[in-house]
Specification:
By secondary structure, the protein is mainly α. It is built from 21 helices and 2 strands.
């Protein structure tokens, strides 16, 4: 430990010397400097999103832990945990935190604390799953002489596709570039095409955004392949990434425009104008296919082929759920649902709800709500439950719902019939009782005469 003693010339014999531990000061300065760098690096993105805030907090914690304890003590603790189960130490399901607890007897408490807090921070970062969190995890691979490299790689592999974007970003960090590349390779993400092999749109958006940040020329082709993606978030991310490539993407964008329009774009167009015109042309081309499906469905509706019309609309909506012309599909879905009310009640309900989702509060909304209430009441009747409320609700929102009116009239008729039958049996009972009374009186009178 490096120390230095200070005392004024006048007070040397009056006060105890002040001892300053420069090692502690250096560690504190290192933490503050790292935190400052992290805050500065996050500042440009702070207004755009607060998603990186939790990762930044954990990064500051890790920066503090990097300066604590000594390497020998940490290595000793890690070796003890490794010896507790050497066969599984490199396995994907090895629990290092549990192994440290099992071997904590007599261990250096400071080393134990640093390791456990570091592992807890790694777990929290993995739970966040954002690219920023993954990047901070990758940085831990170099902490304390790299003794946690295996553990970091294990946790990143366990994250699967969610670790891809962060590891791509980590490749631009000289200190962890090799670690990030080797981890990606171990995960089967060797080239840009591998990185986009995922069923999770959130992951895909993060990967495309990472490609735009890195401007990797080997990934440009992959980015451009998503310019006309059906999913809005993916398409938007791909286009933003393509624009981020700037002039490097211009030749490829010009080629796509030329193939699409049959003529090259004007030479005076810069990348911004070129990308704007290209994206508009791609949208028109993409929507032309979808609108052809819509037109086909409308024709099938006019021909009375409601099943085929719904099938055409389903295809268009599967590719573009928020299609601008989706409201034109509602009448066909409503007509199909109405035709199914008496034969396939569940399918009718699903079809009505499909129509309602396409135009909430639209011109057919009252009809749909009334039909759903009617079908609810019919479902109760099939279970032996007679309830007027669903049918009354159906007529309240849609007075033109004749089936709900007929159901109420039927229920009223049934009640009237029950009342008539009740009265009939009441009068029959009274008549029977009267006959019985007369019979009793007659018999009694006859006995009295016989006695006399």
């Amino acid at each position: 430990m490096t120390t230095r003693t200070f005392a004024s010339s006048n007070d040397r014999n009056l006060a105890a010397p002040t001892v300053v531990d420069f090692t502690v000061i250096k560690r504190a300065l290192a933490v503050l400097w790292t935190a400052l760098l992290l805050l500065l690096s996050a500042a440009p993105h702070a207004r755009a999103s607060d998603a990186g805030a939790p990762a930044l907090t954990l990064a500051i914690d890790l920066a503090r832990l990097r300066t604590q304890s000594n390497l020998d003590a940490l290595s000793t603790r890690l070796k003890a945990a490794q010896k507790s189960d050497p066969a599984k130490f490199s396995a994907d399901d090895f629990d290092l935190a549990a192994a440290l607890k099992r071997t904590s007897s007599g261990a250096d408490p400071e080393a134990e604390r640093v390791l456990q807090e570091t592992l807890a921070a790694l777990a929290s970062l993995a739970a966040l799953g954002t690219p920023e969190a993954v990047l901070e995890m990758a940085k831990v691979s170099n902490d304390h002489g790299g003794i946690l490299r295996v553990e970091v790689a294990r946790r990143l592999k366990a994250m699967g596709d969610h670790a891809t974007a962060g590891l791509l970003l980590a490749q631009r960090e000289p200190s962890v570039r090799h670690f990030a590349s080797s981890t990606l390779e171990a995960m089967g993400k060797r080239v840009a095409g591998d990185a986009v092999q995922t069923k999770d749109d959130v992951v895909l958006v993060d990967v495309l955004t990472a490609f735009g940040t890195l401007r990797d020329p080997n990934a440009l082709g992959v980015v451009l392949s998503f310019l006309s993606a059906d999913r809005d978030t993916v398409r938007t991310a791909a286009r933003a990434a393509a624009v981020a490539y700037g002039k490097d993407a211009a030749p490829r964008l010009r080629d796509i425009y030329t193939n699409l329009k049959g003529r090259p774009p004007p030479v005076e167009w810069d990348v911004t104008r070129l990308s704007t015109e290209l994206f508009a042309a791609l949208d028109a081309d993409r929507l032309a296919e979808l609108y052809a499906l819509v037109d086909e469905g409308l024709k099938e509706q006019r021909d009375g082929k409601l099943d085929l019309a719904a099938a055409s609309f389903d295809k268009a909506l599967a590719r573009q759920p928020n299609l601008a012309r989706r409201r034109e599909m509602v009448p066909a879905y409503v007509a199909l649902a109405k035709s199914l009310e008496d034969t396939e009640r569940d399918k009718a309900v699903a079809t009505y709800r499909r129509a309602q989702s396409l135009d909430p509060g639209g011109v057919h909304d009252a009809q749909i709500q009334g039909a759903l209430a009617y079908l609810e009441g019919e479902e109760l009747r099939t279970k032996g439950i007679v309830d007027r409320e669903p049918f009354e609700r159906a007529l309240a929102v849609d007075p033109a719902n004749e089936k709900a009116r007929a159901a109420l009239e039927s229920m009223d008729g049934d009640r009237h019939s029950r009342e008539e039958r009740s009265q009939h049996w009441l009068w029959a009972g009274l008549a029977g009782a009267g006959v019985l009374v007369l019979l009793i009186l007659f018999v009694g009178r006859g006995r009295r005469k016989a006695t006399a």
